[in-house]
Amino acid sequence: MTTHSLLEILAEVERGLLTPEAAADRLKSLPFEDLGHARVDHHRSLRTGLPEVIYGAGKTPEQTSAIFTSLVNSGVDVLATRVNSATASALIAQHPTAVYNETARTVSLATGGVARSLRGHIAVVCAGTSDLFVAEEAAVTAETFGTKVTRLYDVGVAGLHRLLAVRGELASADAVIVCAGMEGALPSVVGGLVGVPVIAVPTSVGYGASFAGVTAMLGMLNSCSPNVTVVNIDNGFGAAYTAVLIARAAVKK
Predict the structure, then answer these.
(1) Quick check: pTM over 0.90?
(2) Model pLDDT for residues 126-141, shown as the tens digit of each residue
(3) For residues 140, 46, 84 and 97, what is the CA-based torsion angle, rounded to 10 degrees?
(4) Which domains does the chain possess?
């Protein structure tokens, strides 16, 4: 349930096109729907402007499918993250128009219930091809939430000329997400090139002393660029969620 769809229901009641009883039936799953194994938060779009997202890891295909279908029926655009191939197959079987991004491990579905235009612009940057699984999770998340995304991949600090070659594309974004492993230096460099918030995502990429992303995370937390903030290791979704809110606020100005 979105603000737009709620207002449509109320308008139909006002015009006599929908009885109060029928409207109540449509709204009966607010603020949440109890599926037994999950309480699906249909009120979240009304509170925050963005719908609930399904974290697929640890859920069975059947559980994820039930939650996915519940959200689809409520009329919001739906995103499931950390989805394995078995769960993706189950979701696509039930919702053939959904899109499975194997690299991002996401399944997304634009319901088409509300006509929308892109709101805001985010650049998603990654240091190397090994970071793509995190960068793509961020990119798909932002696109699902109706934000323009520019992908700038394989521009790590080991070849700084590659990053400098895309400075113009970086400068046009309302927020920048930077995914990097190893020593995690890239967000600091990007932060020194742009005048917008930079959300750094440490990735679990690197040899032994990278400690599965801990080294990158600590480097990013100690960034000398004051416009850099950091999310958890491999958390492309969390970075994108915040970046979308920043981009939407920028559009309102």
Answers:
(1) no
(2) 999 999 999 999 999 9
(3) -70
(4) 31-116 (no CATH), 121-252 (3.40.50.1970)
